[in-house]
Design a protein that fits this description.
about 35% helix; disordered N terminus; 7-stranded mixed beta sheet; 12 helices; about 325 residues; alpha+beta; 2 domains
Length: about 325
């Protein structure tokens, strides 16, 4: 009787395990002791006891089912108007990606100032940035952006994309912690080997260079959306306080009529004076539905690109979704 009950329980477990997602299901394997499959032969008490809970757990192997995400190729060419670019919208709730220009969406490029999302995240979480006491003194050096030529706090530095401010933050966080957090976030190639940014051919001022600006660190537009989900999604391991502070500085637009709020950061990089990378990435909340986006623009024959244009394209696509 005990053996029959055990056999029935195993069959139930096996049947439950076979209920998959439909799209794609990995092979499921159930391995049982040979005695447990025999119900016609009587078993001794010792033989029955041998089929203990530990024995069952060691011999039953059920491989986890995997749902492949839905990959939808989109024709968003009208938004780009001939510019070389890509757009990705990732919706974890629907397990789906909408992608324009799949090849470019999978190409790793320098994150440039979109990395300020990451340096802010780590700086806030580790106490390097304390929003109410975050002013850093200006060195007196005249930079090309007049908004950087002053003592500046965290919020203003983020919105003005002040490189020297976040260069200091990153140095104070340190390479070991940065590397650990990039690995945790699976941030592209996770390569911070060019810490000072000496590979950058556009600028030799070490207050304005780093591994994230046309240097060793790279990730793709698709990876950008996945990193955003790891930060702001339901399984985020970061504190509520950190995420609220980060959302505050990332807020771009809020429409009460439609219930749409957009949070993001631009980024732009040059090589030898030519703009080669432009980004706008982040997430949107539409009536309680949260999704993640990235628009990337690369070199375009005869046409100028800018991070402002990437932002404009992203907002148009998001509004029409």
């Amino acid at each position: 009787m005990k053996t029959k009950k055990l056999y029935s329980a195993v069959l139930v477990i096996a049947l439950l395990a076979l209920n998959g997602c439909g799209e794609k299901q990995e092979t499921q394997r159930v391995s049982l002791p040979s005695q447990s499959l025999t119900t016609s032969s009587p078993q001794t008490e010792s033989e029955t006891q041998a089929l203990s809970k530990d024995s069952i757990s060691e011999n039953i192997i059920i491989e986890e089912t995997v749902c492949e995400p839905i990959m939808e190729s989109m024709d968003w060419s009208s938004y780009f108007d001939g510019l070389n670019g890509s757009a990705v919208i990732y919706s974890p709730g629907e397990n789906s990606y909408q992608i324009y220009n799949q090849e470019l969406a999978s190409t790793q490029r320098s994150p440039c100032s979109t990395f300020k999302i990451i340096s802010s995240l780590i700086g806030l979480e580790k106490g390097i940035i304390v929003p109410e006491d975050s002013v850093r003194p200006w060195s007196g050096e005249i930079f090309w952006n007049p908004d950087w030529n002053q003592d500046i706090n965290f919020e203003d530095a983020f919105r003005a994309s002040c490189v020297w401010y976040f260069r200091q933050v990153i140095d104070e966080i340190g390479a070991d912690t940065i590397q650990k957090e990039l690995n945790r976030l699976e941030y592209g190639n996770c390569d911070i080997s060019d810490w000072e940014g000496k590979l950058n051919t556009n600028n030799s001022n070490r207050a304005l260079t780093g591994f994230w600006i046309e240097s060793s660190l790279k990730l793709s537009p698709k990876e950008q959306t996945e990193v955003m989900e790891r930060i702001f999604g339901n399984q985020s391991g970061y504190s509520k306080e950190t995420l609220e502070e980060l959302k505050n500085v990332m807020l771009v637009s809020e429409e009460k009529e439609t219930g749409l709020s957009v949070y993001g950061k631009t980024g732009m990089g040059k090589e030898e004076g030519i703009t080669v990378d432009c980004w706008f990435t982040g997430f949107a909340d539409k009536a309680g539905d949260q999704f993640y986006f990235c628009v990337y623009l690369g070199e375009s024959d005869g046409k100028e690109i800018s991070s402002g244009k990437a932002k404009e394209i992203a907002l148009d696509i998001i509004s029409d979704c």
